């Protein structure tokens, strides 16, 4: 099924190029030899802890740090006032808003950073927190996003001059007039309020940093949990006025990111200030509750979704009104021109001419964030909206949900396809992928079984989701973050003995970059992947680029790696020609070797060429020695991976419990570089989907208390909730990507929640249920069956 | 990493030693068993004992054995040992069924019966099992040993009859020939605490229920039990109608509170639904089916 021939194997048994191989990085991870930020211990290093607000909204009357300072082992206590003196009390967010580093005037969410203690040990630092006396004057909190714009609502951002409400922005996409006209003319219109609740990426490793500002050299070395080391370096330079050539950001092994490690957090900034203040390295590592309560959350989109169709089920138009809860600071990380991320790809995988969305963003007294948790810049919300409403339409039309989708899917000859909201889908054969998924599932048989079970009073459900993503941000003329264009550099050095090092700006958090990128170079040059070292995560030793999130590493840096490999291959040709005393035009490439056309015995391997490039061979005019190259890749478009997921559940209506019995995932991510890594990414994302669909949520009570601040309250799925994943694939290479690869890191997280929810709703539809919000915990399912659904973003009453 | 406030630590070698150490370290000392409830609270600084007296080395607190017509379970018996005990499996399958759903293997390898009973969490599963089976607790202090019925053991959430300076040494369960037993629990996810649980034993003899016990957790049942429902069933045939009526009484006797696990009406419904399911299975098994 793969579009590629099998790669030959190296002496170590690895594919020379694409194919299955064990991840190179696993050798150290499986032995417990990974090196995470908390493993970094520098001589003389001090430890720290952050005092956080117990209130969601309160004025700070006074802060008394004297008792904390008097505790033996405490070196310094930094407050907002200290930072204000340095001009650092506030910092810019990635969305051109501001965020308090340490609160000066007010606290605006529970868990907000108030003071920073530096001490000999983490224990002493935490002991000292209890000695800081903060007097608060509690204020009413804005918790319900739907009430944030009510007249008389407390103003959260009174730090912003002239701010008289909690409004952040209105943003729209698509064509309103066309859409309204299509709705007016439609036979059938279905509307549903659909919440994508606030969830949290919760990587296994929480966020942290070790800052060392060398008082002699003035150089700052920052070990930090970042998915974007270069972007962070530049932001520190811009914000703190530190000279960029004296900032080295090192992102060592990262224990999961999912978008959680894209923003810059107050703790990182405090560790830097702490090192400046004390003259010593300062480590800050947050604990689990701090991670859940204060760092970048995801989603929190209240969506009103409408779909219009003919009575035969031909979709005519879709519109979505979104109320976006951004928390107390607009800390969303996304390309500047897209305040709602790529949400407007919500038109999905279907062929219809009119669509419109309107996104209204508001401040609430909750933690800031918003684009995280493997969401491809809010495509998760978009896919959920369209796939849920298509199922609602199928219910309204009493039509099978697969049939309705098949009737409306884009057809292969429509690609490249320009969507009603302006995206240019690069390639696809959607029906083929859907048929593969239905075949694996045995769809017709499942429907028969469902009918039999229903007759016996058993509630089985089948849910489908067909998703299209746009990933690999992005073309620099459209896409930047804080003014930094989203193009990635890549350097390749082939050493004299033919072993290579490739340097990249993207940062692996578990995606297997050390393997995948070695395989890409291997594919281009024929050097075995075990002979290629991937160097990343250290800004002093890698070229500039924007980092790993939004499934962009393979689409952007993967393209850069392929192109830098080709550049070296072209140079190798000139050198081989010199060595073989022939014209470069007479040479032909086979994997790992240039040879003379018509005389395959006369040739030079890439290893021989590498040695010659560094040796005494006389090189032709204009050819420099050595075998190195650099590229910067500016993607011409996003890549558009897609897939069809089918979920089968059994629901116990007496208890509301959902059992996911089967899950079929057929992904088309174009060329599969290492199919095993692709499958691993899909497995992880599917588990994420089970989590979001069935258990994960951060709700708040009316005082703004965070009700998901520990793993007792914020539930992550375990293997017990996951069925044996049944995977399939189709391969439709991206036409504009050098190796035809599309990103896959987030596909399953984006695509799976809708399939699961659709399956549960399908199961309980005999009770008259058409929609219920995530997470579908036993209680929520039972209440939906009773016709009294709960509001999942608030405290359960 | 979450870090506890400073504390002293001493390892006890016998019950007498533990009592002496408790006396020595005073009111703010706490015993530690598996530590799976106590340590998380200490790390969140919700608990801050001055000293921990470690019970893990005390041999006399271990083991599951039969004494007369009672099964004796030492306070330091781990959840995992209950799960795999042949004695308990033979007399009361309810233990296996409950333990399968308590936490996860890591917690079960360490967490203990004594810790579970003394933590007195309103959602503790073994408390429901103990109340269902009408067991007794053996408490030892400087003044000697006393026994307390498990249905009197809990004073309320996180409070028991064990006084400062005392420890729980054993839990004892009467053996009831011919009893069937079962445990039903709804959790949001494997390893989560109960949204609601119900555990029961039933003895059916001569076509009628001659003895039964109903234990409930996480639903605000007084002392984790439903005595009115039990009384209703005694002397009645274990028909679906009677079992459902008893389950209804049990459900109505609960006083659940809403939290993120679910609203109160749902939990009350579960108290009924799960009790009915457990009663059905226990009655069937008592009748040899
Ligand atoms: C992730 C997780 C999930 C869990 N899920 C469940 C669940 O689903 N159902 C459930 O029932 N439980 C659950 N538990 C709790 C588990 O059963 C604990 O092990 C148990 O509650 C405490 O046992 P322990 O031995 O660890 O006690 P410890 O934590 O050592 O002690 C708990 C308390 O009891 C006191 N204590 C302990 N032993 C004695 C004694 N012999 N005499 C007097 N006082 C004593 C201690 O001083 C302390 O106050 C869970 C725990 C965790 C961490």
Automatic annotation (TrEMBL), chain A:
GO MF annotation, one: molybdenum ion binding
Sections of the chain in a coiled coil: none
Protein name per the record: Unannotated protein
Family matches, as Gene3D superfamilies: Aldehyde oxidase/xanthine dehydrogenase, a/b hammerhead (3.90.1170.50), Aldehyde oxidase/xanthine dehydrogenase, molybdopterin binding domain (3.30.365.10)
PANTHER family: ALDEHYDE OXIDASE 1-RELATED, XANTHINE DEHYDROGENASE
Domain Aldehyde oxidase/xanthine dehydrogenase a/b hammerhead: 31-140
Annotated keywords: Molybdenum, Oxidoreductase
Origin species: freshwater metagenome
Pfam families: Ald_Xan_dh_C, MoCoBD_1, MoCoBD_2
TrEMBL record, chain B:
Keyword line: FAD, Flavoprotein, Oxidoreductase
Single GO molecular function: FAD binding
Keyword Metal-binding included in the entry's annotation: no
Matching InterPro entries: CO_DH_flav_C, CO_DH_flav_C_dom_sf, Diverse_Substr_Oxidored, FAD-bd_PCMH, FAD-bd_PCMH-like_sf, FAD-bd_PCMH_sub1, FAD-bd_PCMH_sub2, Mopterin_DH_FAD-bd
Pfam families: CO_deh_flav_C, FAD_binding_5
Domain FAD-binding PCMH-type: 2-178
Cited SMART domains: CO_deh_flav_C
Family matches, as PROSITE patterns: FAD_PCMH
Protein name: Unannotated protein
């Amino acid at each position: 099924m793969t579009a590629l021939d099998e790669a030959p194997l190296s002496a170590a048994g690895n594919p020379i190029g694409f194919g299955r191989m064990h991840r190179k990085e696993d050798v150290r991870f499986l032995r417990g030899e990974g090196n995470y930020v908390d493993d970094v211990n520098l001589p003389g290093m001090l430890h720290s802890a952050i005092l956080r607000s117990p209130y969601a909204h309160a004025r700070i009357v006074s802060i008394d740090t004297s008792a904390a300072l008097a505790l033996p082992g405490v070196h310094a206590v930094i407050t907002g006032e200290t930072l204000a003196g340095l001009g650092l009390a506030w910092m810019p967010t990635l969305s051109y808003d501001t965020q308090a580093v340490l609160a000066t005037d007010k606290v605006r969410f529970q868990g907000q950073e108030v003071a920073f203690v530096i001490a000999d040990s983490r224990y002493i630092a935490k002991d000292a927190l209890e000695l800081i006396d903060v007097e608060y004057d509690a204020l009413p909190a804005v918790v319900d996003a739907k009430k944030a714009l009510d007249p008389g609502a407390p103003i959260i951002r009174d730090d912003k001059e002239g701010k008289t409400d909690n409004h952040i922005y209105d943003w729209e996409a698509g064509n309103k007039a066309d859409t309204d006209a299509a709705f007016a003319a439609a036979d059938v219109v279905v509307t549903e309020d659909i919440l994508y609740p606030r969830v949290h990426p919760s990587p296994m490793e929480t966020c942290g940093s070790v800052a060392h500002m060398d008082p002699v050299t003035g150089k700052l070395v920052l070990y930090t949990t970042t998915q974007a080391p270069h972007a962070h370096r530049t932001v520190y330079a811009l914000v703190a006025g530190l000279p960029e050539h004296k900032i080295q950001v090192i992102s060592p092994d990262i224990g999961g990111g999912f978008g959680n490690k894209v923003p810059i957090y107050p703790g990182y900034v405090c560790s830097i200030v702490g090192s400046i203040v004390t003259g010593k390295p300062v480590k800050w590592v947050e604990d689990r509750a701090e991670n859940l309560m204060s760092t970048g959350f995801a989603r929190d989109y209240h969506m009103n979704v409408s779909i219009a169709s003919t009575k035969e089920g031909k979709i005519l138009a879709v519109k979505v009104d979104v109320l976006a809860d951004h928390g107390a600071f607009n800390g969303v990380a996304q390309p500047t021109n897209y305040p709602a991320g790529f949400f407007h790809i919500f038109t999905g995988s279907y062929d219809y001419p009119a669509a419109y969305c309107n996104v209204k963003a508001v401040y609430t007294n909750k933690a800031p964030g918003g684009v995280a948790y493997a969401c491809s810049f809010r495509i998760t919300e978009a896919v959920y909206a369209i796939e849920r409403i298509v199922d609602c339409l199928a219910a309204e039309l009493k039509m099978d949900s697969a049939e309705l989708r098949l009737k409306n899917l884009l057809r292969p000859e429509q690609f490249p396809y320009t969507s009603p909201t302006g995206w240019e889908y690069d390639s696809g054969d959607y029906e083929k992928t859907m048929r593969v998924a239905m075949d694996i599932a045995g769809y017709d048989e499942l429907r028969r079984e469902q009918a039999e079970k229903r007759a016996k009073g058993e509630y089985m459900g089948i849910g489908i989701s067909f998703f299209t993503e746009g990933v690999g941000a992005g073309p620099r003329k459209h896409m930047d973050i804080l003014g930094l264009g989203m193009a990635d550099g890549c350097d390749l050095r082939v050493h004299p003995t033919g072993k290579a090092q490739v340097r990249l700006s993207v940062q692996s958090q578990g995606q297997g970059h050390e393997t995948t990128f070695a395989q890409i170079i291997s594919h281009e040059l024929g050097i075995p992947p075990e002979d290629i070292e991937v160097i990343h995560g250290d800004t002093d030793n890698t070229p500039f680029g924007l980092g790993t999130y939004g499934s962009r590493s393979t689409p952007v840096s993967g393209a850069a790696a392929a192109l830098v490999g080709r550049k070296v291959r072209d140079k190798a040709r000139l050198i081989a020609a010199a060595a073989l005393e022939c014209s470069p035009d007479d040479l032909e490439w086979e994997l790992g070797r240039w040879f003379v056309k018509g005389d395959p015995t006369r040739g030079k391997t890439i290893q021989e060429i590498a040695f010659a490039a560094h040796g005494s061979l006389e090189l032709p005019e204009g050819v420099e020695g050595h075998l190195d190259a650099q590229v910067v890749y500016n993607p011409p478009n996003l890549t558009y991976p897609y897939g069809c997921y089918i979920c089968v559940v059994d629901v116990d209506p007496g208890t509301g419990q959902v059992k996911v019995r089967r899950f079929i995932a057929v992904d088309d991510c174009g060329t599969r570089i290492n199919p095993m890594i692709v499958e691993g990414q899909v497995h992880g994302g599917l588990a994420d989907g089970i989590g979001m669909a069935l258990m994960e949520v951060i709700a708040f009570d009316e005082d703004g208390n965070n009700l998901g601040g520990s793993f007792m309250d914020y539930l992550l799925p375990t293997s017990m909730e996951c069925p044996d994943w049944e995977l399939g694939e189709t391969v439709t290479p991206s036409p504009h990507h050098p190796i035809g690869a599309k990103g896959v890191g987030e596909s399953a997280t984006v695509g799976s929640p809708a399939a699961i929810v659709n399956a549960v709703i399908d199961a309980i539809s005999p009770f008259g249920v058409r929609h219920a919000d995530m997470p579908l915990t036993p209680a929520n399912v039972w209440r939906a069956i009773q016709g009294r659904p709960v509001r999942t973003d608030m405290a359960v009453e | 990493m979450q870090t506890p406030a400073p504390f002293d630590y001493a390892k006890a070698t016998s019950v007498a030693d533990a009592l002496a150490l408790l006396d020595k370290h005073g009111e703010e000392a706490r015993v530690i068993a598996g530590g799976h409830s106590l340590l998380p609270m200490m790390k969140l600084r919700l608990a801050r004992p001055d000293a921990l007296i470690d019970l893990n080395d005390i041999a006399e607190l271990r083991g599951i054995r039969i004494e007369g017509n009672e099964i004796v379970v030492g306070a330091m018996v781990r959840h995992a040992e209950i799960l795999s005990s042949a004695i308990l499996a033979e007399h009361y399958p309810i233990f296996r069924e409950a333990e399968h759903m308590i936490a996860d293997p890591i917690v079960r390898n360490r967490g203990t019966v004594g810790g579970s009973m003394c933590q007195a969490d309103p959602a503790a599963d073994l408390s429901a099992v103990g109340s269902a089976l009408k067991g007794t607790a053996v408490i030892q202090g400087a003044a000697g040993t006393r026994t307390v019925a498990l249905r009197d053991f809990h004073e309320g959430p996180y409070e028991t009859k064990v006084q400062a300076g005392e420890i729980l040494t054993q839990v004892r369960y009467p053996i009831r020939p011919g009893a069937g037993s079962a445990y039903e629990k709804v959790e949001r996810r494997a390893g989560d605490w109960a949204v609601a649980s119900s555990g029961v034993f039933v003895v059916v003899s001569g076509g009628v229920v001659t003895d039964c016990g109903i234990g409930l957790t996480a639903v605000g049942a007084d002392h984790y039990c439903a005595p009115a429902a039990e009384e209703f069933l005694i002397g009645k045939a274990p028909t679906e109608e009677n079992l459902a009526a008893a389950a209804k009484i049990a459900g109505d006797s609960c006083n659940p509170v809403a939290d993120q696990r679910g609203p109160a009406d749902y939990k009350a419904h579960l108290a009924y639904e799960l009790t009915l399911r457990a009663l059905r299975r226990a009655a069937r098994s008592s009748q040899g089916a």
